[in-house]
Amino acid sequence: ESEWEFAARGGSKVDSAGFDRKIPYPQEQLAEYEWYAGPQSSHNKVKKIGLLKPNVLGLHDMLGNVAEMTASL
Fold first, then answer.
1. Coil, strand or helix: which one is 48?
2. Got the DSSP string for 4-26?
3. Beta bridge partners of 35
4. DSSP state of 35
5. Residue 68 class from Cβ within 10 Å (0-12 exposed, 13-18 middle, 19+ buried)?
6. Where are the alpha helices (DSSP H) in the chain?
7. How far apart are CA 62 and CA 15, in angstroms?
8. Phi, psi at residue 16, to the nearest 5°?
9. How far apart are CA 27 and CA 71, in angstroms?
10. CA distance 24 to 18
11. Do 25 and 33 contact (CB within 8 A), yes or no?
12. Helix (H, G, I), strand (E, B), or coil: what is residue 39?
């Protein structure tokens, strides 16, 4: 899990203050990086990988999408 968190938050390209936040980018930019449930985003449907912006390491879809939909199962 620690390796995934490191990659999801942008690895060593993010300063330590960035690791204190719940998500590695500003809340108002959430829809640019992450699919989430609801009418403003995925409409509770799985989306193709790579349609949104990558994180600073170039990795797509590290948060949200299927992970969010299955987290409570």
1. coil
2. HHHHHTTGGGS-GGGGGSSSSS-
3. 64
4. B
5. middle
6. 2-8, 30-33, 66-70
7. 18
8. -60, -30
9. 20
10. 6
11. yes
12. coil
Amino acid identity for residue 54 in this structure = P
Q: For the chain, how are helix, strand and coil distributed in percent, rounded to 5?
A: 35, 5, 60
What is the per-residue pLDDT across 12-67, written as a single tens digit (0 to 9) for each?
766 666 566 677 778 888 889 888 777 888 887 888 889 999 988 888 888 776 66
Please report the pLDDT score of residue 66 as a whole number.
Answer: 65
Coil/strand/helix, residue 32: helix
Fill in the amino acid letter for 36. Y
The token pair at 48 is: 């193709």
Give me the residue spans of the domains in the chain.
2-70
More confident residue, 12 or 68: 12
pLDDT of residue 53: 92
Residue 51, pLDDT score: 92
Euclidean distance between CA atoms 33 and 61, whole angstroms: 7
